[in-house]
Protein: rRNA adenine N(6)-methyltransferase
Organism: Nelumbo nucifera
Amino acid sequence: MLFLLQPLPPISSFSTSRRRVEPSFAAHDNARCRGKFHVASARSEDDYHATLKALKSRGLTPRKSLGQHYMLNSSINEQLASAADVKEGDVVLEIGPGTGSLTNILINAGATVLAIEKDPHMALHVRERFSSIDQLTVLQEDFTRCHIRSHMISLLQNAKSSGRNSKYAKVVSNIPFNISTDVVKQLLPMGDIFSEVVLLLQEETALRLVDASLRSSEYRPINIFVNFYSDPEYKFKVLRSNFFPQPNITGDRLMTGTNFTLFESLGTAVTRMKVRVDAAVVTFKLKEAAEYPPVASTKSFFSMVNSAFNGKRKMLRRSLQHICTSLEVERALESVGLPVTSRPEELTLDDFVRLHNLIVKG
């Protein structure tokens, strides 16, 4: 039995114009971001109808439990592929192909595509839609549990034996928002497999991953992780009107971090709110192992970082005293030019690396 997020609107209620609408752009103004970001906003009517027809043909509606939000604008998908510079002979991983609109663009660009889809109905739809295409493999699996490394190694080896010189693969995906962090954590340490990862994320997540500021509540261990393994870049904003259904977040998520002050005066009723949210495209240029910051053990490094942030607002000399004494932590902080009263949200990636190498014994 399918759990419905939003019923499909009647196809006849929208224009049947075949004219393609190109995206318009506007500046994205956010105090946490530097530079000028562009907004991709226009909808391709053809893609809207194609998406609804694909779902209606199987009697399906988007499932909230799977975080399904289908892209209605083919120009956004083209920009996703362009952000990764997808070209003839590339090997591309797509997570959550849905109706196959992005898949189609990747294939037309000449890429060999591995599409991983958890929903068995949508996996079947994509297989049937591209049944005559040899350069697509569809796996009906939960990405967060699949052995992606072995799948990709096999695909790259096959590409090499076919005469295509693809040393690294790429990731280009409009992923379910509810697995964003899991996807990032699984993919970014795979710089030996992927050269870059291009993801369409909830905008709040995109901003937090790319440009969380020091000394802010948005600065977390995931920021250290992202910058350890990659060079992230916010590419452009995608308005919620480009999705069906439009993504939203609930009030309990709004009442966190810097958002709390804005909503605290509304009382407990805010936790029952649903607020529409936009999305954004982020690219992660993955580092190879030789480019990682110099730590003896990544496991011990991230264990230390997580411990540092576990004690909210605690000074490092207290939160890290299970690793060594408070006095030793203070001396290490002084050695790297930091105050002995430092807290985790005040340290950069390089600061954490130098601190780790002083207090964690081989």
Notes: Confidence is low (pLDDT under 50) at residues 1-46, 250-271. Residues 39 and 237 are 5 Å apart (CA to CA).
